[in-house]
Write a structure and sequence with these properties.
Elements: E1 28-29, E2 38-42, H1 49-58, H2 67-72, E3 79-83, H3 87-101, E4 136-140, H4 158-163, H5 166-169, E5 177-180, H6 190-194, E6 203-208, H7 215-225
Parallel strand pairs: 3-6, 4-5, 5-6
Antiparallel strand pairs: 1-2, 2-4
């Protein structure tokens, strides 16, 4: 019996288009703040929205996220709980959704909105440029909203001493979006929920691993804040 010759490849016009590639998210450190505690990812306004939506819907890591429902069924700013083992994929999803949901502040030609409004984060003239907060997603540990989650500071540790005041001075309400996540320990606490009043106009995401799900606090997020 003769072997059957392999079929010739289909003409380019007949091939199904390749799914759009998922855009990677680059988390950047902020001046004088450990990246493990607070980082910033620029939003994706340089990509056309339809292309961004298509790549989100084609990405297997986002298969369980009802994008259309989230973008349409909301009370004010976005309120999303992301159940995921990967904080990177959670941040990636948050960047996508924040970009698709909001308008680029740069389109308003408001030059003042493109710079930090915080003396703590002022950069030196010769330092590398930092992303504007209102055009970025901030990824923070919950201890920055609930200081009670802080580990006791070690003596003579200037970094911990310096960053202990971040929760009081960092303008969380000015960021394009905020995601709270932690590799271990609680993410949701009553104090974190109390701070939601300050963030009522901010897009907020909670990235939770299976062991971090607190059903009572989740219900409060859903019914009080529309998550």
């Amino acid at each position: 019996m003769k072997a059957r010759a392999p079929a010739a490849p289909a003409p380019a016009a007949e091939r199904a288009p390749a799914p759009p590639a998922c855009v990677p998210v680059h988390l950047q450190a902020l001046p004088d703040i450990p990246k493990s505690r607070l980082s910033c990812a620029p939003l994706l306004w340089h990509i056309p929205r339809e292309a961004l939506r298509a790549s989100f819907l084609a990405a297997p890591q986002f298969a369980g996220i009802p994008l259309q429902q989230i973008l349409e069924d909301h009370r004010g700013a976005l309120r999303v709980i992301l159940l995921a083992d990967s904080s990177y994929y959670a941040a990636q999803a948050a960047v996508y959704m924040t970009t698709l949901f909001t308008e680029d502040p740069a389109a308003k030609n408001d030059d003042d909105s493109l710079w930090y409004d915080l003396e703590l984060l002022e950069e030196e003239k010769d330092s590398a440029p930092q992303p504007a907060l209102n055009r970025s997603l901030a990824v923070a540990v919950p201890a920055l909203l609930d200081p009670g989650l802080e580990e006791p500071a070690k003596p003579r540790n200037p970094i911990q001493t310096f960053t202990s005041g971040v929760s009081e001075s960092f303008p969380f309400s000015l960021v394009g979006g905020l995601m709270l996540a932690a590799p271990s320990g609680p993410v949701l606490t009553p104090r974190v929920l109390d701070r939601m009043e300050e963030l009522k106009e901010t897009n907020v995401f909670f990235a939770l691993q299976p062991g971090q799900v607190d059903l009572e606090l989740l219900e409060e997020l859903r019914f009080t804040w529309g998550f």
